[in-house]
Amino acid sequence: MRKFSAVLMCLMLLGSLLAACGGKNNVDNQANNGGAAPGNSGRNNEATTDDAKHDITQRKVTLKIHYPLPDETTLRTQEDDKIARFQAQYPNVTIIKDDWQYDINEIGVKMASNEAPTFYNTWATEANFLVERGWVADITELWNNWEYKDEINPVLQEQFIVDGKVYGITQNGYITSTVVNKKLLDDKGVAAPSLDWTWDDMYNTAKAVAEPKKGISGIAPMGKGNEAGWNWTNFLFEAGGDIESNVDGKVTAVFNSDAGVKALDFYKKLKWEANAIPQDWALGWGDAVSSFQQGRTGMVIAGAFDVVQAALNEGGMKPRDVLVYPMPAAEAGGKHYGILGGNYLVINPNATKDEQEMAFRYITFDYFSEGSLKAVEDTINARKAEGKYYVPTPLEYFKEDSEYAGKIQAVYDKYDNVYKYDSNLFTLLEGKPEAQFGTQDYYATMSNVVQESFSKQDMDSKQQLDTAAQYVQENYFAKLEEK
């Protein structure tokens, strides 16, 4: 889901100057290294001029970059700083800011009218969709020539590798988790469940915490917008189900399975038996997170970073009162599946080769830089001066066992205002990628099912899911075969 990109990107795209690292062909490398062929020490003016033509830093390049929205003032300030540092190293590059945000309903028009940015942000669900329509550049050569490619988190990067070719660069990622308000549990005398918990544990905890007459819910599942379908899909995965199958290019809806019925029945139990969800259950992503930070719910389902950040720095909660759990297993010994999602920067295929290479250099400019370590430490100190906490993201763009990860952790260990996740959490988190075809359409359809389940008691789950699957199949998946 795209709602996670802003704050996460704020943390991970900080830093100082990074040596140029885009892909270059052999001629480029010769030119940039002063590169006459062996034995050709005397270079005439004609050769020098020819080398300059092949040196991308000597040619004028214009980039229309992905830029934060007007209300994202902190992100804009940071992006402006990055632009200044980038242009100090590449004075030949002109930057045009474009705050268009990826929209599945607008990308086709943007491409057709040649108005799309040189690179833009998109989500993990969109790889096959964009590749099939030719709306994203193949950057395999640039990727293969990048010195840090082997230090990138492979779980995240894999989402934008299609048929062995690279089409995007991971910015950040998440595995959907459950965040628990321990203070609310303590106030009610409810013991916090084990991290290796189950649906029954979630049900019992939510039921025990809920006080409907006081406006306190035990859990606040999202109930409107595509995020309602997104929240529910975690339970589909935990029950052993899938959204779709893809056999020989034929995509088929399969979420109306026994696992789907089990997951939908569990949602209904939270509503109709436990009376544990908000009375006004039509909560979007922001509503659910706000409910948690205001102490009005015991649990919320989302990417952990966003909830913890809001709870500590906006809600005034203490780290000991905000616990991050994996999603619960359907049964003891089962998988703690949570949706694996993320945000990616992809390059416009209509851009020239020079523009594509400079876009790659811009995107990766702050990755793995020593300066970014200082920037993280400066941010931690700034948070401390404000009486606030620094919240790391659980899933970074770099490998957790990389040298850079060790450097980041060493910085975290120096401060008492850095939020610390339970180390056992990472042994239980199990990410499952979102489906690659029609995912947002599926989420929207399932959101209607969730709303119907919360508003009408005694609905037949199998019938609801069969109707939804037929709708998704006929209106979305079947049309994939026509393209």
From TrEMBL:
Recite the UniProt keywords alphabetically: Signal
Q: Where are the stretches annotated Disordered?
A: 32-54
Query: PROSITE patterns per the record?
Result: PROKAR_LIPOPROTEIN
For whether the record's keyword set contains Transcription regulation, the answer is: no
Signal sequence coordinates: 1-19
Listed SUPFAM superfamilies = Periplasmic binding protein-like II
- Compositional bias, Low complexity, is annotated for 32-45
Domain of life of the native organism = Bacteria
Q: Give one Pfam family, short name only.
A: SBP_bac_1
PANTHER family in the record: ARABINOSE-BINDING PROTEIN-RELATED, SUGAR-BINDING LIPOPROTEIN
Task: Please give the name of this protein.
Answer: ABC transporter substrate-binding protein
Lineage, opening ranks: Bacteria, Bacillati, Bacillota, Bacilli, Bacillales
